[in-house]
């Protein structure tokens, strides 16, 4: 669903959508495509898009969404699920002349997205909110023990007998002086 400025200038546009898994690409622009982040169930979103009064084309998209996301655990690489059930409010400002030039911005502008053209796409707004909502470290559970750095065994399934000795190579030259 695309929100055109000309429609928003007349009135707020309401939406109530269900987006099937695979319709939104969550890997788009990701540096590491091996994260395996994907939508595990239908995404339901309800809300409205409107022009902010007294602004020059600033769009506010707000509402509520529910979705279950899935990705590999950052510690053990097993499947992990991340349910999201949250309200959202995102603001978008049109790209102005001089965009990309270095200039100081205030804290409000740091929370602002930008759009080019005639408006914003709902799928892009929902994708952005979901990516911002997900935890930085995606783990299957807080007590996840991860993978042994020596043998590669998943420590959640079986405890290995490896004992990693902490060593600091910066002191190796001084160790040779001792002997």
Kindly summarize this structure in a few lines:
With 179 residues, the protein is α+β, with helices and mostly antiparallel strands. The protein has helices at 5-10, 107-110, 122-133, 172-178; strands spanning 2-4, 13-19, 38-39, 43-51, 59-72, 79-94, 112-115, 119-121. The strands form two sheets. Strands 2, 3, 4, 5, 6 and 7 form a six-stranded mixed beta sheet that branches. Strands 1-8 form a two-stranded antiparallel ribbon.
Fold blueprint:
Layout lengths: L1 E3 H6 L2 E7 L18 E2 L3 E9 L7 E14 L6 E16 L12 H4 L1 E4 L3 E3 H12 L38 H7 L1
Parallel strand pairs: 6-7
Antiparallel strand pairs: 1-8, 2-4, 3-5, 4-5, 5-6
Descriptive account of the structure:
Strand 4 (43-51) and strand 5 (59-72) form a beta hairpin. This protein has helices at 5-10, 107-110, 122-133, 172-178; strands at 2-4, 13-19, 38-39, 43-51, 59-72, 79-94, 112-115, 119-121. By secondary structure, it is an alpha+beta fold. It starts with a strand and ends with a helix. The protein contains 4 helices and 8 strands. The protein folds into 2 domains: 2-144, no CATH class; 145-179, no CATH class. The protein is elongated and about 80 Å long. It is 16% helix and 32% strand.
Index terms:
179 residues, alpha+beta, six-stranded mixed β-sheet, elongated, 4 helices, two-stranded antiparallel ribbon, 2 domains, single chain
Q: What percentage of amino acids are in beta strands?
A: 25-35%
The poorly predicted ranges are none
- Quaternary state of this entry equals single chain
**Rough shape?**
elongated
Which H/E pattern describes the elements?
EHEEEEEHEEHH
Our count of domains comes out at: 2
Strand tally: 8
């Amino acid at each position: 669903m695309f929100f055109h400025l000309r429609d928003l200038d007349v009135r707020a546009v309401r939406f109530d959508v269900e987006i099937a898994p695979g319709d939104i690409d969550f890997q788009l622009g990701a540096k590491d495509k091996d994260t395996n982040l994907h939508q595990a169930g239908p995404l339901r979103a309800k809300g409205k898009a409107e022009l902010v009064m007294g602004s020059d084309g600033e769009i506010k998209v707000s509402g509520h969404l529910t979705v279950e996301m899935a990705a590999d655990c950052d510690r053990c690489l097993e499947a992990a699920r991340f349910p999201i059930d949250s309200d959202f409010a995102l603001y978008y400002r049109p790209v102005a002349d001089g965009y990309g030039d270095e200039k100081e911005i205030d804290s409000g502008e740091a929370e602002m997205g930008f759009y080019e053209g005639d408006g914003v796409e709902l799928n892009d707004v929902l994708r952005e909110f979901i990516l911002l909502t997900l935890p930085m470290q995606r783990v299957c559970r807080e007590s996840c023990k991860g993978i042994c750095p020596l043998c590669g065994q998943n420590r959640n399934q079986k405890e290995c007998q490896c004992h990693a000795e902490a060593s600091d190579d910066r002191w190796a030259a001084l160790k040779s002086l001792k002997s």
